[in-house]
Write a structure and sequence with these properties.
The complex is a heterodimer of chains A (199) and B (241). In chain A, 44% of the residues lie in helices and 11% in strands. Chain A is α/β, with parallel strands linked by helices. Chain A has 2 domains: 52 residues, Helicase, Ruva Protein, domain 3, CATH 1.10.8; 130 residues, Dna Topoisomerase Vi A Subunit, Chain: A, domain 2. In chain A, α2 packs across α3. Chain B contains 7 helices and 8 strands. In chain B, the strands form 2 sheets. Chain B has a 5-stranded antiparallel β-sheet. Chain B has a 3-stranded antiparallel β-sheet with strand order 7-6-8. In chain B, α3 runs antiparallel to α4. Chain B is elongated. The chains are: A alpha/beta (199), B alpha+beta (241). Chains A and B meet through α7 and α8 of A and β1, α1, α2 and α7 of B.
């Protein structure tokens, strides 16, 4: 087939196609849309990407992604309320922030322990977490890790390391909002039944 | 090529954006990997957890290709495993050791059955440690490092078998041990299906099986260290002592 685009545009399409959720076809459509809305979308997007590429970095304290060495959450003194929420990934932190119910600080591990994949405590931000707890006078560590075998193995490991130093809690497991029992897997149903409460 | 079998999921890793490569311990085909299309999706996440019992349909153009699986959940063990620290550590130890020890595509139907039964006991913390010890002994036997606890290797005596020779893996009686006793491994009665199955005795038995796993089995696989998950399981068990 004859090439109908210039190499720069093809290059952009190839890069866009590497983004999660996009393939070559959808990347082509997105690039075409950007070019058609050059002033409205393409130029501001290019400027924004350049700026983020130059400034984005991990927070030295918690591992969140921001544009300074210390992220806004860690800099906010009002969030130093003694509660520290441990999450696996930055996307989990953002999800918690979207909910807007947690007013403390976070700690992003950057993954979970996995003996099979040779991921040990030192490959994650667990040593930094152990330093932060006494340094920031943390009174409660909330282990908001995924309800997976790896996630809970990591939670138990951290709980063992911090045992006796601080109050340790984890997120509840059970039926999600809007969930129908008929569609739930048996693991979730058994976890929900074990965590039942009086009404 | 196509076959249908049942298997225990040992590990899963993402492959590309939406697929997963799973390592299964199957009943008739041994440890066998394959791709599950869409295996990294949210819908499949609760299904593809280590320890899950899956009904599998494997397809590939040639036998030595990785191939792809169609998987259907038969039994999830995540609920039982997440119910407690011992169960979770135990599940990790079992799947970790199986992934560590088993050769690819070599059937071990007896070990498969024992592993399935052991995992079905997850959550029953009173009996699980003993079942795990017996399973480790079966694992050693299946892979060619079985322990012979029937009689004393030196005298043939049947009584007071309280040691195991680290060289031969055979039982040694108190009388025959003599001055070599401190160089022999402990043989708690629980390993011979006798006596009280207390946590202390089970831990002693696990230290003996651990010796053979570490010094006999692991070197035969290229000297890689045993999975950390086994050590963590022993830590949890020790704390419960």
């Amino acid at each position: 087939m004859r090439d109908t685009s210039t190499s720069e545009i093809e290059n952009l399409i190839a890069l866009m196609a590497k983004l999660p959720g996009l393939g070559p076809r959808s990347a082509r459509r997105a690039v075409l849309h950007l070019i058609r809305k050059r002033a409205l979308l393409l130029t501001p997007l290019a400027d924004s990407i350049t700026e983020v590429a130059a400034t984005a970095r991990e927070c030295l304290n918690c591992g969140n992604i921001g544009t300074n060495d210390i992220c806004p959450i860690c800099e906010d003194n009002e969030r130093a309320n003694g509660e520290l929420c441990v999450v696996e990934d930055v996307s989990d932190l953002w999800a918690m922030e979207r909910a807007g119910v947690f007013k403390g600080r976070y700690h992003v591990l950057g993954g979970t322990l996995s003996a099979l994949d040779a991921v040990g405590p030192d490959d994650l931000r667990i040593p930094r977490l152990l330093d932060r707890v006494p340094a920031e006078a943390v009174t409660e560590v909330i282990l908001a890790l995924n309800a997976t075998i790896d996630g809970q193995t990591t939670a138990h490991y951290i709980a063992d390391q911090l045992s006796g130093q601080v109050r340790l809690t984890s997120l509840a497991q059970g039926v999600p909002i809007g969930g129908e029992l008929d569609y739930l897997d048996e693991g979730t149903i058994s976890a929900a039944l074990r965590a039942r409460k009086e009404i | 090529m196509e076959w249908r079998d049942q298997g225990i999921l040992l590990r899963m890793r993402r492959h590309g954006e939406g697929s997963a490569i799973v390592d299964m311990f199957t009943a008739e085909h041994g440890r066998h990997a394959g791709v599950i299309r869409g295996g990294a999706s949210r819908k499949m996440a609760p299904i593809l957890q280590p320890g899950a019992q899956l009904d599998l349909l494997w397809r590939a153009r040639l036998e030595d290709h990785l191939g792809s699986y169609q998987a259907e959940l038969m039994r999830s063990r995540a609920g039982a495993a997440l119910s407690g620290r011992l169960a979770l550590a135990g599940l990790n130890a079992v799947t970790g050791l199986l992934a560590f020890c088993l050769p690819d595509r070599e059937p071990h139907p007896d070990l498969y059955l024992r592993s399935e039964r052991l995992l079905d006991l997850l959550g029953q913390d009173e009996i699980w440690p003993l079942a795990y010890l017996q399973w480790e002994m079966a694992l050693l036997e299946e892979l060619g490092f079985g322990l012979d606890l029937s009689c004393c290797a030196v005298s043939g005596a049947l009584d007071e078998l309280i040691y195991i020779s680290p060289k031969s893996g055979r039982a040694v009686s108190r009388a025959s041990a003599g001055e070599w006793a401190d160089r022999l491994l402990p043989l708690p009665a629980v390993m011979r299906g006798e006596g009280e199955a207390g946590t202390g005795e089970i831990l002693q038995g696990l230290s003996t099986t651990g010796f053979f796993l570490e010094h006999r089995l692991a070197p035969s696989l290229g000297n890689t260290p045993l999975p950390e998950a086994r050590g963590r399981f022993l830590d949890v068990l020790t704390r419960q002592k």
